[in-house]
């Protein structure tokens, strides 16, 4: 058997597995108890944030700490227009608002490299939160907003839908020539530019596409919290978690960040309920160990073990 | 009409003049050598031509069209390609993908993926890297990384190729192979400008040489004229005299 039929058979198996997983996920709320839906909502939220983060930062190497900004824009969009328009449109507007903001911010700042870009994007989180607070204090005279509440099942299905779209988008980008170009930017940006890649365009567009999904997720999640204020919406925690989850899972493959997000979210929920006081301590320790001993994440570890296993198999024959 | 023409090309870094009022012309199909002591402004001139930097003041014309201030990717698609003094390969990508990127983006419209793979494979064969096309670029030897850069540049289908110290750091055998490669690129009808410290290579490959010193052009002519030029000898010996004191 030649290698192409082997890989296509292998990828067919993968597609079937993925399809089965999604079908199972679609039926979860019908059979699982209420808590499962809540847990799955948290997991899906982090998976979406992490996969969107990796879509831009994983390949280009530009460390964005802006997820909280785009997530928060979605949350506020939902709080402002929720109930006035049909919900799918609200979610779309949440995503689009983040998309537009990312285009603007990206065009202004993606010339900054390395640590400067990371610090700028982090500053943006603070800037957004404090500007909104100023606005609410001095202009509208309010503090925070109530959000139209949705049922857990509705939230769950919307997030699942966003996740499927996101996964398809990420997969198509990875496979296309633009995926290769994004990688080339991450490895040697100058050479990419002199090889004909329109680096600025590509960076800004990808940054904005990833922001769209974060914003859409924010618009959906807002309805779970009933009340939001600038510091709930623009919480830096949502910037750091995707980074941590992506590193923990491993960024080499598309499913690495997903695995990282699922495991860490579950771990977080588990620790909060079982060891409320020690939760951050245990969580932090696990992260430190993971960063020290798993430089390529869980997926990297699994690949290493698999390679060792198959080498041994070859050695025997 | 010259394929490339620079008029009064100048670049300051703060108060320091890196390239000062340089005029140059490159004719279609020729190989032009660019030499000069370290810090003479050779690489800066390459950066100006390939649009990594913008001359101020000064204009650069490609086939009569003013290309000053265009973005690097546009210059690349306009059929000017380059390599780098310190190699800049896409380290984690296989050699083949390094070259495919050039076929995809180096011209507009880009190639279909089938054509890109075919062309990249041919180019790797052309530069002698067929055996390592699946190897990540970072695992290649320096000589092979330099050849990979040439293949990637050729994949963008250039009419003008800028080679920045392609022979630096190579052993004598590798220098010989690199010279042979440059000759074969010329035989394809591609115009070449090369920066080189290996004088044997410059003398053998180039018909014409420009000498830069402190950012200014101090001499221009055939290799014979350059080696016998008093001014050039003064500059090179003067450097040595300074270094000795």
Structural class of chain B: alpha/beta
| Radius of gyration of chain A, whole Å | 20 Å
CATH level-3 fold name of the largest domain in chain B: Rossmann fold
Approximately what portion of the residues of chain A adopt beta-strand conformation? under 5%
Question: In DSSP terms, counting alpha (H) and pi (I) runs of 4 or more, how many helices of chain A?
Answer: 13
CATH class of the largest domain in chain B: Alpha Beta
Calculate the terminal CA-CA distance of chain A, rounded to whole Å: 19 Å
Low-confidence stretches of chain A: 1-5
Most extensive chain contact?
A-B, 18 and 32 residues
Biggest sheet statistics of chain B: 6 strands, mixed
Structural class of chain A: mainly alpha
> Widest sheet of chain A: strand order?
1-2
Low-confidence stretches of chain B: 241-245
Q: Say how many strands of chain B there are.
A: 10
Overall domain count of chain B = 2
Q: Kindly estimate the percentage of residues of chain B that lie in beta strands according to DSSP.
A: 15-25%
Contiguous helical run count of chain B: 9
Helix share bin of chain B: 40-55%
The average pLDDT score of chain B comes to 89
Provide an overview of this structure.
The complex is a heterodimer of chains A (317) and B (245). In chain A, 82% of the residues lie in helices and 1% in strands. With 317 residues, chain A is mainly α. Chain A has a domain at 37-235. In chain A, helix 3 (67-81) packs antiparallel against helix 4 (87-109). Chain A is built from 13 helices and 2 strands; from the N terminus they run H-H-H-H-H-E-H-H-H-E-H-H-H-H-H. By secondary structure, chain B is α/β, with parallel strands linked by helices. Chain B folds into 2 domains: 1-70 and 160-165 and 186-245, Rossmann fold; 80-157, no CATH class. Helices cover 40% and strands 23% of the residues of chain B. Chain B has helices spanning 42-49, 72-77, 95-105, 113-127, 142-155, 172-187, 199-205, 223-228, 230-244, and strands spanning 4-13, 16-26, 31-35, 59-62, 65-66, 80-82, 160-164, 191-195, 208-213, 216-221. In chain B, the strands form 2 sheets. Chain B has a 6-stranded mixed beta sheet with strand order 6-7-8-3-9-10, with helices on both faces. In chain B, helix 4 crosses helix 5 (142-155). Chain B is globular. The termini of chain B are far apart. In chain B, 46% of the residues are buried. The interface between A and B is medium-sized, with 18 and 32 residues.
